What we know:
Blueprint: H1 4-14, H2 30-42, H3 67-75, H4 81-85, H5 103-115, H6 121-133, H7 139-155, H8 157-160, H9 164-176
Amino acid sequence: ALDIFAYVEEYYHSVPFSTLTEHAKEITGETEAVLMIWQAVVAGTSRINPLTNKPMFSHSIFSRVNVNTMYQYDLGTNMSIGKVWGVSGFAPQFVGMPENNNQIEHLSISIILQLIMHESIVILNAIEEEKFLLANAPKAMADADMALNQAIHKEFAPYFSDNRKMAVERLRQFLKN
C-alpha cells in the first residue's frame, strides 16, 4: 500500500488539477491532494464520527475505484479489505491479534485524519480506548490501533510535507520493526 504513494505522486504531477479524480473539500494543496488520492486508491473508506454520526471525510465517486474493489472484481469474490491487504509488513505490535487484519485501512484513515483533518492523536487514541472500554474491541486490537496511530504521528506526519519519499520509507521501516 505504501508503494502506491509513488504512483499517486506521478499521477498528481501528470494530470491537470481540474481533472484529478479527487476534489474533496479538505484538499487545500498538493500534500492534501496526494494523501486523499492515495487513501481513495488504497481503501476509499472513511470512519463515522461518533458524535455526529456522519463520515469524518468523504471522497468523490472515484473512491469506489480502489484496489480492494478491483481485486474482488478480478477474482469474482467478495472479501473484506483486510483479507485483500493482509498485515504483512506490520510488526506484531501494530496488529495485536490475527483478527485485526484491517491495518492498511486503519493506516490510510489515520493518515487522513491526522495530516488533513488535523485530528489530535489524543482523540484518535481515545476512540480506540473507548472501543475497548465498551467491549467493542479486544485490548490487543485497541493497543495495536493506538500504536499505529502513534507511528503515523511520530514517524510520518512530521516529514511528509517536506520529503514524501523519505517519510513513506521511514514509516515502512518503523512498521516492520
